[in-house]
Every structure is written in C-alpha cells, then in structure tokens.
Amino acid sequence: MGEQTAFDFALSQLDTAAKILQLPENLLAQLRAPYRLLTVSIPVVMDNGTTKVFTGYRSQYNHARGPFKGGIRYHPQVNEDEVKALSFWMTMKCAVVNLPLGGGKGGIIVNPKELSADELERLSRGYVLQLYKYLGPDQDIPAPDVYTNSQIMAWMLDEYEKLVGHHAPGMITGKPLSLGGSAGRSFATAMGGVYVLEEVMAKLGKKPKNTTVAIQGFGNAGSFAAKLLFERGYKIVAVSDSQGGVYNIDGIDPVKAEGIKKQGGMLGCYCLGTVCSTEEMKNLDGPCHPVTNEELLELDVDVLIPAALENQITKENADRIKAPVILELANGPTTPDADPILFGKNVLVVPDILSNAGGVTVSYFEQVQNASNYYWTEAEVLIKLEKIMKDAFHAIWEMKERHQIPMRTAAFVVAIGRVAQAMKDRG
User: Fold this and answer.
1) Of 52, 195, 173, which Cα lies nearest the Cα of 114?
2) CA–CA gap between residue 65 and residue 172 (Å, rounded)
3) pLDDT bucket at 260, cuts 50 / 70 / 90
4) Which residues contact 219 (CB under 8 A, 6 or more apart)?
5) The predicted structure's pLDDT at residue 197
6) Residues belonging to the active site
C-alpha cells in the first residue's frame, strides 16, 4: 500500500466523526467525494513571446450550506489530491464557525517567483477566463492562499466583471479596500486565534501574565498573533521564521523583533537567519539563545503556536512536545499519526479548522458588506468576529467533554453534523 495522501487523511477524519455521529451511509458516501472537480489549461503569452500552458484546478466540495468558498494557491506542488483535501477542510472550517457557506479550493501549478508581474497578471486573468461560469457571489467565492494576494484578487475580480458585464465585488474576497475589501482582514486569522485562546485559558484558569508562548512562523498569522498576545499581557518567549529563531525566557517584544526582521539583521536578543547558527551565537551566556524551528516546538512553554508550514508536529517529535496547549494557526501543522500521541499525553490541541477560521469569517463579512454595499469599521468587524469565534469554541468544547474526545475530532463532529443536517433538510 502506498503512502497516505492528504485526501486519505481527510477521509479518515470524516470516517472517525461519522462513527460518533452514526451518520447514515448515504450521506457519508456523498461526503467522501467533491461535488465537482474542475481541471483547466491556461495558455499564457510570456514576455518573450512564447506561449506556456499552465494547469489549474478548482475543487468544489460541498455546497449544502451555501456557495463554495476557498482560496486559490500558486505553487509548483499543487495537485488534484491536495485541492480535494483542502476543499474538504474548507467545508469543515466554514461549518465549524457556522457560516452559511460550503467549501472549495483552487490552485495553479506554477512557481510565481519565476514570473514577471505582467505574466502573473495574464495567468490570473486566464484562470478566471476558464472558470468564470462556475464562479460568482452565489456559486463559488475564491480568496487568497499560498503565494496569492490582494493584487491577484483584484485582477481576478476585474476579469470576472469584464466577462459578466456588471459589478460583482462579492465574487472574490481578500480584495484591496479600494475594491470592496473588509477592514480587519489583514490580521483576522491571528485575531480569531487569539479570541479562541482567551477562551481556552479561561477554561484552564490561567492568566496571561503567567502564560509563556512560543510561536513557530513569523509571517502574517504568526507576527500578528505575537503582537496581539503581547498587548494582552502574554509572555512571548520564542519566535522563529524560515531562517531560524530565538528563545528568551525573559520575554521578547514582537514589535522590536518584527522591526529587526524587516531590517534583515539582529538587535539585542533577536537573531535572524544564518547568524543564528554561528558559534558565537550558540555560546551566548544569559537568557537569550538562538533556536531552530525544530527546537522551538519542543520548548517548555505553556502555549505552542505553529503558524508556519504543515506537518511540523509528527509521530517522530510528538512525544517530546512539552507545551500543554497547542493552538494551530497554520493549516495542518500536526500530522494525523501525531494526534493520538498528543492526546495520550493530555496535550490540548486546538485544531486549525477552529483556530485559524478567523480569516474565512472576515472573508464572509467582506461578502456581506459587498452584497449590501455598506461597509463596517474595524471595530464593528472585530465585535462580530469575537462572537463567532467564541461561540464556535464553546460548541466544540461541549462536544469534546460530552464524548471525551480530542478537540480536533470534536470540531469535525460539530462540522459534519451541521453539513449533514443541511443535506438531510434538502432531502
């Protein structure tokens, strides 16, 4: 038997939750495959005059609860299995936070760093040209994902509106504010995670000032999470990026750390990149030490936040994890074979489909604002986000306690139960 794929993992999560729910076989059978999987060829005239054909995908998994929703990623490793799995997880994520949306995901097999800005624009418009009949505010609403951004969303929106002949800002989210983007979207993923962590800490009876936090990944989600938690009195003791990281038991100011990262150097205790691995840094005396991304995961802290790549906590290192709470801001940072080990050690894993659902929630807010042509302040967005994230947490916590199961399984039970109910009600 070959190695398990991402979609195999997704189906195993579905099956586990379906057993607890005693889901009827006919509903389970329908949930085991996407509603529609589209594969398209996208010819692009390159800057040198040649034409290159790229392959694009859109997996539309389930729309029982509402239109498909999910990002588009540009990456050399994009493949059919990946977009199917990601579209399943998007279905679950939208249901976990009780949004009236289904799940989808798209991607193009490309290394965007190898394209000029003009080539990237032609590729983005070409993707919409091939798929626009299947997209739209009432059908399928894309968003940014890996290596896509608000500019790419703006090109896609413009191409779609040209093709359909009218304004339709709600056909895509993650847009620039000038084209109907939502206030608060830039840090929504981190903010949603912070709201969930506040509820976890309340359940555990822990105060922020007595809580140490290590954050792997200092991109959008990780850097915003560090700043937001620091502002609330949590003690950030370790941060890292792709080049390496730093551990300081006395605490790190993430605003200073971010400033140094932007300068491409080190200041005081924050160490960036290859300088972290020099002998001088390794032999530092005092509280401040460089750490690798692997070492950061195993630090003795109260809360570990993986906010970088998938597959960071595995069966190989799960037994060495010391943090009693893991808040997953990255997508899929924990492999399925690590989950039972962590559960056996009483580690509370707050799963990605809850922890990082703030992003899709504010994307939903963006759609609502586009549909009404009335826009909210950042404060209004955050009030609404906090309620949705905390309500979702309590529904999952109650399910976890009722069945004495991991939070991840509880989240899937809640989500699949909601999707299945919509399918049943439709007959």
Assistant:
1) 52
2) 18
3) low
4) 241, 307, 308
5) 98
6) 105
